[in-house]
Amino acid sequence: MRTIEKISQSIAELNQAKEHCLFCIIFGSCYSWCEGALNMYLNGKSPQNMSFEERMELTASGNKDWQYLQAALIMAERNKGTILDGFRGLIIEAGMSELKNIQKYGACYFNCVGGHTFGVEYDMFCRRKELVFPNYNVSDIRIKQFENGEHFYAYIGDTQVKDKYNNMKWNTRNEAYEAAYASLRVNMAS
Description:
Layout: H1 2-20, H2 22-26, H3 28-42, H4 52-61, H5 64-78, H6 83-105, E1 109-110, E2 116-117, E3 141-144, E4 153-156, E5 159-160, H7 173-189
Antiparallel strand pairs: 1-2, 3-4, 4-5
Helix pairs in contact: 3-5, 3-6, 5-6
């Protein structure tokens, strides 16, 4: 009972830190990959509780939660800590790559699944409160026209569309939609 209380308290601390700490905001994508592995552990799927066949099946299937769980257990053992210390160690280790990119290149860009890069060639640049680039699709395209206005403006989510000629306004609703759709298609391909 005491161990479960400690784990619950640690999870609450991680969630609270995630909301308030810059490192946890940066590592927010990493926390989501830990969740499945931690749930596995809490549900009794640790190597000590499993048969050899079960472990081999998970390994052979390439189950990411199983791989992260094993990595966290190794990290915990290496640091002489708990499983949560192992997860924290993995999160910090993963984050060091992003921090090195920020130091070396001045920026680090995150995608919607936690991947990152330091070099991005872009047609448009937008500043966001979130550190993760939005994952837009066709349903996020909006076309606006000011009251009594002549032109149409295209938006994908909260980002105004600019085409390759730096146009931000179009004469018809269809032209604006086509520009947004083309921009979305280019960004989805890269």
